[in-house]
Design goal:
Blueprint (H helix, E strand, L loop, with lengths): L3 H5 L7 H15 L8 H17 L2 H10 L21 H7 L1 H8 L22 E7 L1 H6 L1 E12 L15 E2 L8 E6 L2 E6 L8 E2 L12 E12 L8 E4 L15 E7 L6 E3 L2 E9 H6 L1 E6 L4 E6 L8 E4 L15 E8 L6 H14 L16
Helix pairs in contact: 2-3
């Protein structure tokens, strides 16, 4: 199986516009209407469509870049899906109908379609939604409810756009092809039909509820399962939860982009979390067991004797889980040793005794702590 970038003749860093342009050139070159009966051209047409299906889709392309063809074959893609698996030409025109309309004009949607009526069915648009989640949701996962604006099929006309009891009729201007052909000298010019705007049909009596659109705006509520271990920028694809299709066309998808809110207590580094905790100089010197916050509660942290400022103490398994499952990372506390700005008389005397016992020279009593020698 050939490399998809090689098939389209683009670099691995090519942007979407470059990929679409490359596919357009190949599709025009090997289109069945331009190569009737040419099996080799048909195979190249399918090959280009499969490459475009993967490289034009962010999630599929990322898996392909990482795992090659195995990353986009069945059993690997989950909700993102793998290549369409085009078995015949009609599969391709069904998947990329809108693209072929852009490339070739309204009358060239598939092989042998020129001069014939075209379907009004159109796939609904994909929708995008940004969802903010807390660090706690990253640790344990969460069920979130979102609300967004979209379109749904008009119940009054069942999405046809025509008044109940009537139906759209074939456009009399273009004969249902969606385009008007004019002869100018030696040239034939095909333009979008002005009467039906390229739809191939007209509605004489529009539905009074949706005004002939076939769809109505609604607010939708949807429950989203946020998986543990996600990072800012993670996208969830909900197939068939986007905008409803036109005239019975398939529904688009909903892409939920997750944004993890900052937590003032913790800083994330992959699966590790970092935090700072203050301890007294006595706790650092003599050791101590202190209570600290974790993302989901509290835990005991053991400070070893002789710790110093910046010492790292780990709480194993209190960090972030892997998105692929398995053990959680660690929560790493950085000690901040605090010294008193002023000592009591007894504290000073005891410390001076220690300094004297160890032979350490220190200032007289009128020094750092501001008491004058008696």
């Amino acid at each position: 199986m050939r490399d998809y970038y090689e098939v389209l003749g683009v670099s691995r860093t090519a942007d979407k516009d470059s990929i679409k342009k490359a596919y357009r050139q190949l599709a025009m070159k090997y289109h069945p209407d331009r190569n009737p009966g040419d099996k080799q051209a048909e195979d190249k047409f399918k090959e280009a469509a499969e490459a475009y299906d993967v490289l034009s889709h962010d999630e599929k392309r990322a898996r392909y870049d990482r795992f090659g063809h195995a990353g986009v074959n069945s059993g690997f893609g989950g909700a993102g899906g793998g290549p369409q698996g085009f078995h015949d030409i009609n599969d391709i025109f069904s998947a990329f109908g809108d693209i072929f309309s852009d490339f070739f004009g309204p009358g060239m949607g598939g092989p042998g379609t020129r001069g014939r009526g075209r379907s009004r069915a159109r796939r609904g648009s994909d929708l995008r939604y940004r969802l903010e989640v807390d660090l706690k949701d990253v640790i344990s996962g969460a069920q979130k409810e979102i609300q967004f604006d979209t379109d749904e099929a008009c119940k009054t006309c069942s999405g046809s756009g025509a008044k109940p009891g009537t139906s759209p009729i074939t456009c009399l201007t273009c004969g249902g092809s969606g385009q008007v052909v004019r002869q100018q000298g030696f040239f034939t010019m095909a333009t979008t039909c002005p009467a039906c705007r390229g739809e191939g049909v007209t509605i004489k009596e529009p539905c009074t509820d949706c005004k002939g659109r076939g769809r109505k705006p609604v607010k939708r509520k949807l429950s989203i399962q946020v998986p543990p271990g996600i990072e800012t920028g993670t996208q969830l694809r909900l197939t068939g939860e986007g905008e409803v299709g036109l005239a019975g066309g398939p529904t688009g998808d909903l892409y939920v982009e997750l944004l993890v809110k900052d937590d003032r207590r913790f800083e994330r580094d992959g699966q590790s979390l970092h935090a700072e905790v203050s301890v007294s100089y006595l706790q650092a010197l003599l050791g101590s067991e202190i209570e600290v916050d974790t993302v989901t509660g509290q835990s005991k942290l053991t400070v070893q004797p002789g710790s110093h400022d910046g010492t790292e103490v780990q709480l194993h398994g209190e960090g972030v889980p892997s998105l692929r499952g398995g053990r959680r990372g660690d929560l790493i506390y950085h000690l901040k040793v605090e010294f008193p700005k002023k000592l009591t008389k007894k504290e000073e005397e005891l410390l001076r005794e220690i300094a004297k016992d160890k032979g350490v020279e220190v200032l007289e009593a009128s020094g750092f702590f501001g008491r004058r020698k008696g």
